[in-house]
Write a structure and sequence with these properties.
With 199 residues, this protein is mostly helical.
Length: 199
């Protein structure tokens, strides 16, 4: 007959409070990392738009570089957002499972198991696609729309938007059509998923 498995040690209130403080600190660190990525994107866009509109001889393809950089920053921020949401989920578990009952609220009887699962097998509560959708809608779609507006403004200062949009041996209308399809895809992606707090 196998001996019974030992019961896991009970967490003291002090240990839970230290865990809560640690998770709050990690959540703050992830928040700062998200803000840093956004600040990089804003600074890069401001520099490129200023350069692109500053001289008539500056090629209009510079604005395509701005869009590509925005997409690179978006990919980075979506990954960071998943980490932020994982930590935020743990903080909410501690708040609803430990602190809320201490203040008289109804307890969440499953919070310790959920917390243990999150610590042993960390799984962000949002997919990469959802994270991309949320960060695109909140931060990067406005920046990309600004790039498009600056691009069109530069084109209309020349001989006309269709003519000036030509690039890499492709006609202006074709370049405009490709740019329009890309923008439509980004708008659709931005509207595809709700943010976690929206359900």
């Amino acid at each position: 007959m196998n001996p019974p498995e030992p019961e896991p040690p009970a967490l003291s209130e002090t240990a839970i409070i230290h865990l809560y403080r640690g998770e709050l600190a990690r959540m703050t660190a992830y928040r700062v990392r998200l803000d840093t990525t956004t600040n990089w994107a804003i600074g890069t866009n401001a520099a490129i738009i200023s350069l692109g509109l500053g001289g008539r001889d500056t090629p209009h393809l510079l604005f395509a570089v701005a869009v590509i950089l925005n997409l690179a920053f978006l990919a980075m921020e979506a990954r960071r957002f998943r980490g932020f949401e994982l930590i935020r989920q743990r903080v909410r578990l501690l708040e609803t499972g430990f602190f809320a009952p201490a203040l008289g609220s109804a307890p969440n009887p499953d919070w310790q198991r959920q917390m243990a699962d999150s610590l042993t097998t960390p799984t962000p509560p949002v997919s990469y696609l959802q994270a991309t959708s949320v960060r695109l809608r909140r931060n990067f779609l406005p920046l990309i729309l600004l790039d498009y507006a600056a691009w069109l403004f530069k084109l209309q200062r020349g001989t006309g938007i269709p003519n000036e949009a030509a690039a890499f041996g492709q006609s202006g209308p074709l370049v405009l059509a490709i740019a329009g399809v890309l923008l439509a895809v980004l708008v659709a992606l931005a509207l595809r998923h709700a943010s976690p707090e929206e359900g």
